């Protein structure tokens, strides 16, 4: 029994020494499966590239581009491991385009690059489908006008702090689940009287909800709120 106890104790001591020895040896972080023992930060420059931009080939020369409006649009496909997030530059002749950013996006998809993905529906600022980040602010693309006198580039990207499904399309599932959790509908404080069939509403009662019901569930305000970033 004593010999067995000594054997177990000796094994435990050896394991502890091995673990301490491993901790004392500096561990090199490997950034790729093909990285060698001399890998350094200089070998992984792709990681540190931000706002990586490429230009979509439209067959335009420099003189033509000067007369057109440039749009840098965020492109990403998380389902494709080979596709890296980037901005793609497109040039549009604003004399042949509608006044809103959604018009420009539709023109790009219909006439230049059909692979571009974004949401749209009513084009009247009612459905909230085309919410996105335009030049650093969240807007509905269908009612956000393009400054045609400004030929500087405009940058279009998805809503901030939302998971991207593809390009400008974000996952709204969490947003809708949170909205559902607060019971977003009117609730009667008193029960119906006997025989009552309709919920009658006076003009005064109707005015009480002005300013409270106009939300189109676009998530612009929520996704741009710092408080929500820290407590999603």
Entry summary:
By secondary structure, the protein is of the alpha/beta class. The chain has helices at residues 2-24, 62-66, 101-112, 173-181, 203-207, 220-223, 226-230, and strands at residues 53-55, 69-75, 86-92, 131-134, 137-140, 154-157, 164-166, 169-170. The strands form two sheets. Strands 1-3-2-6-4-5 form a six-stranded mixed sheet. The chain has a two-stranded antiparallel sheet with strand order 7-8.
Report on this model:
This protein is of the alpha/beta class. It has one domain: Ubiquitin-like (UB roll) (Roll). 27% of the residues lie in helices and 15% in strands. The strands form 2 sheets. The chain has a 6-stranded mixed β-sheet. It has a two-stranded antiparallel ribbon with strand order 7-8. A hairpin with a 2-residue loop joins β7 and β8. The chain is extended, with a radius of gyration of 29 Å. About 9% of the residues have low confidence.
Unreliable stretches (pLDDT < 50, length at least 5) are: 4-9, 22-35
- CATH homology superfamily name: Beta-grasp domain
Shape: extended
CATH topology: Ubiquitin-like (UB roll)
Beta content comes to 5-15%
Cα Rg: 29 Å
Q: What is the CATH top level name? A: Alpha Beta
What profile does the largest beta sheet have?
6 strands, mixed
Report the order of strands and helices.
HEHEEHEEEEEHHHH
The helicity comes to 25-40%
Number of helices: 7
